[in-house]
Every structure is written in C-alpha cells, then in structure tokens.
Amino acid sequence: MANRIQQNMVAFVLNGRPFSVAPDPDETLLETLRQRCGCADVKKGCDEGACGACTVAIDDVAVPSCLVLTVACAGSRIVTSAGLATDPLARRIGAALAEAGAVQCGFCTAGVLITAWSMFRRIPSPDRDTISRELTGNLCRCGGYDLMVEALAGLG
Ligand code: FES
Ligand code: FES
User: Fold this and answer.
1) 22, 80, 96, 113: least CB-packed within 10 angstroms?
2) 118 CA distance to ligand 1 centroid (A)?
3) Are residue 42 and residue 74 in the same domain, yes or no?
4) Which of 57, 54, 63, 67 is nearest to 27 (CA)?
5) Is it the case that residue 87 has pLDDT exceeding 80?
6) Residue 55 Cα to ligand 2 middle (Å)
7) What is the pLDDT of residue 3?
8) Cβ(16)–Cβ(77) under 8 Å?
C-alpha cells in the first residue's frame, strides 16, 4: 500500500518551493494548482486550451495548464504569476502593461504576464509581429491587444 501511494506521487518545484502531490491519472495541472496547491492566481477560463487564462511556465515555457496532465510534470519547474512577484523582468512587464492601460478587467493578465515573461527570456528584443504571435494563445475579452503589444514592444 505504501509503495502504491509512493508510485502515485508527483514531485515538482512550484514557484521555487518543492511540492509533492498525488493527482488522479486524468487530473490537469490547472486542477492541481488550484485545488491542491492553493494557486488562485492561475485562472480557469475555457478549460480546453483556447483562452490562455490558465497559462503557467513549465521549465520556462508558457503553456496552458488545462492541457497538461499533472502526472507529466514530475521533475518540472513550474512558475505562476504569483511566483514572479519579485522577479525584475516580470515587474517591468507588469508595470509596462499597467502604464499602457492594457490591464482592464484583469482576467487575462496573469496568463499574459507569464507568456510575455517566457517570450522575453527567449527573445530579448521582440518586434511587434513576434509579440502579437506570442500572445495569440492569450484571449483578452476586453480587447487590449494593441495596448499590450505597444507596451511590450517598448521593453525590447
Ligand atoms: S482555461 Fe486553459 S486555455 Fe482556457
Ligand atoms: S483585461 Fe479583461 S480579459 Fe484581458
């Protein structure tokens, strides 16, 4: 019995802290983060990979957590927007979005922040087309795309 429990455990690093959970086989990372790890900052929108509200970084790559099974995250380094609260790059991104007025209702903002943070780590000076392409998976119901692209282009 103890061995079976041990086999079902999945260990990862979440926002710099080691976590160990026992997810259901079909449990998504979104469910795990919200229900087992207390990550209220990871939003549940469409729950089918279409809106980007649930975006987190897994080993620095931005992905919709509703499309990832938790059992596939063993050994991964997962970062949510709350984990970037003191990160200098994320703070610059957040400030630029806010200054540009690109944060309206805020529902998409955590996912956009993660996507932008991941982008700037790979592409330090993205042009507007690149930024637009990178943000494709993050829907903003408030229609702030132009302001987001403008804000992020100013950081490159
Ligand atoms: S909730 Fe995951 S992409 Fe919409
Ligand atoms: S600011 Fe409202 S959904 Fe993007």
Assistant:
1) 22
2) 17
3) yes
4) 67
5) yes
6) 14
7) 46
8) no
For the segment 38-57, the average pLDDT, to the nearest whole number, is 98
Under 8 Å CB-to-CB from 20, ≥6 apart: which residues? 9, 10, 11
Q: Could you tell me if the CB of 111 is within 6 A of ligand 1?
A: no
Range of the structural domain that residue 113 is part of: 84-153
What's the confidence (pLDDT) of residue 7? Answer: 57
Check whether residue 89 and residue 112 sit in a common domain: yes
The CB-based long-range contact list for 43-47 (8 Å cut-off, 24+ gap) reads 43/107, 43/110, 43/111, 45/107, 45/139
Q: Using a 6 Å cutoff on CB, does residue 51 contact ligand 1?
A: yes
Asked if 109 and 127 touch (Cβ cutoff 8 Å), the reply is no
For residue 141 and ligand 1, the question of a CB distance below 6 A is answered with no
| 8 A C-beta contact, residue 21 and residue 36 | yes
* Segment 10-21 mean pLDDT: 98
Burial class (CB in 10 A: 0-12, 13-18, 19+), 69: middle
What's phi and psi for 87, nearest 5 deg? -75, 125
**Residue at which a domain ends, from 28, 59, 80:** 80
